[in-house]
Design goal:
CATH class of the largest domain: Alpha Beta
Largest sheet: 6 strands, mixed
Oligomer: single chain
Shape: globular
Strand order of the largest sheet: 2-1-6-3-4-5
Number of helices: 24
Distance between the termini: 24 Å
Number of strands: 17
Radius of gyration: 22 Å
Amino acid sequence: MFGYMGKLLRINLTNNSIKVEDLDLELAKKFVGGRGLGTKMLYDEIDPKIDALSPENKLFFINGPMSGTPTPTGGRYMVVTKSPLSGTIASSNSGGTWGARLKYAGYDGIIVEGKADKPVYITVTEENVEINDAFDLWGKTVGETTDILQKEKKTNVLAIGPAGERLSKIAAIMNDKDRAAGRSGVGAVMGSKNLKAIVVTGNLKVSLFDEEATKANNKEATQKLKDNPVTGEGLPAYGTAVLVNVINANGMFPTNNFQEGVFDNAEEISGETLAEKYLVRKDPCHRCPIGCGRYTKTDKVEGGGPEYETIWAFGADCGVKDLAKIIEANYWCNQYGIDTISAGATLAAAMELSQIGLLDHVDFEGHKLEFGNDDAIVYWTKKLALREGFGDEMADGSYRLCEKYGRADLSMSVKKLEIPAYDPRGVQGHGLNYATSNRGGCHVRGYMISPEILGLPAKLERQELKDKPFWTKTFQDLTAFIDSTGLCLFTSFALGADDYAKIFNSIVGTNWNGDDVLKAGERIYNIEKQFNIEAGILPEEDTLPERFLKVPMPAGPTEGHVHRLSELLPEYYELRGWDSKGAPTKERLEDLGL
């Protein structure tokens, strides 16, 4: 049993039962772990049509075989469930140390079923598992909860904040205070089960198939990460916010709810400015040689972040140039447990609704939601998380907000999940990834920014259509594998499929090559798609907001362009072995062992 601990915890909160189950090793190797294994088990155990906030939904906290190993960035885990925001499969990835600590406690994952009749939290150690009363924790912030429960050095806390308790469909699950399994509303599922936190303590070691080979592979991978200009220079120096000026210079930095692609004040909210004015230190995840995480401080708050996406969501997307206010909004998202991308994008959508007069009746309590109002982003982030006043209307994301006012088209989302900080009119491949992502508007399911903007592993012309379906599919499949191993996606800036195969082999004892890695990723991608189909996600939902398809970018380096999705989808579906409507064919499923 190499790479895996061989055990799963199954906890039913309805009847307070705790079971330790053997890991099906053959199933684990077929679906790798993390995202893949969690999706397969969820698919097998629930009806995809259930209400995501019902007790019938389940939460899978699943590690990969590289979680808790000496592999660079080997500390990540996945939260897999049905999304209350989109109705799709939800698999949200988080870093920090909690995932590795779960392995050190002896488990590859925790499955949470049912619903407690009162607030509870779970403690997991090498010797014992308990369900505890959380009455005194309910209502507390993530930071307060963590401080109370983290009693010793080798303990890590995962928790929801008030947003998850109030079932906000954009609520996050937080670990290690400021690391987020942020997207798809997974925090609301945890809240719906009256589960406040999971505390893990452990000091076990993960067995490796070949320790010497693993050591050599890790040394080689670390060197490649250090030699790469993104993972060795840009991210360590400026964090993910190094992208602010890069994306803005390409005219695809979404501004004022994606009405424009150039933000005149980008330099004021850039990674360079963050480092100069507010950075206290780098804040790397477990065993990470990159260290893109930031720990910042203003005259009002201090803590982890903000990331590039957060700076954009509360910054350019809301027309705000005050970086201190953006940091403050990020802080409250972490404390209340809310997805920063969806929160900022929902505020931006509300600002456009206000701009066209649809919110004239709203009591903004002296903090009008209008582009450029920096005080409003902090005020309404708190109100949104707590479902207070107009915040209650925003707590379930931009799509439901805009739909209520008859303008669903102003929600810049795919499958109800808000699109992040790259306007698809400026990157044809990345836009295709948004449209076909199994969890909706997500940039980290197939990060085509890497070849289309950063030139890694090869430079692709961003408006060119040729080969974009092939590249998009390849990136999506590789990402599915990486997410399932317990490694960070950012390693893919420097490593390729063959590198991952070599590391995987030395840890698990397989004899895979790069093609096997991609096929495993394709298997995972297809079972996610099959889940969505059975959940009732319609084929026509593989699309983009009308603004990107019909309204040319008004100015800047991307001026005049729209996204040409209709020209890309047919080839993409053909490459995937799906029918013309976007459903996997029987032959493709059989070929993948599904």
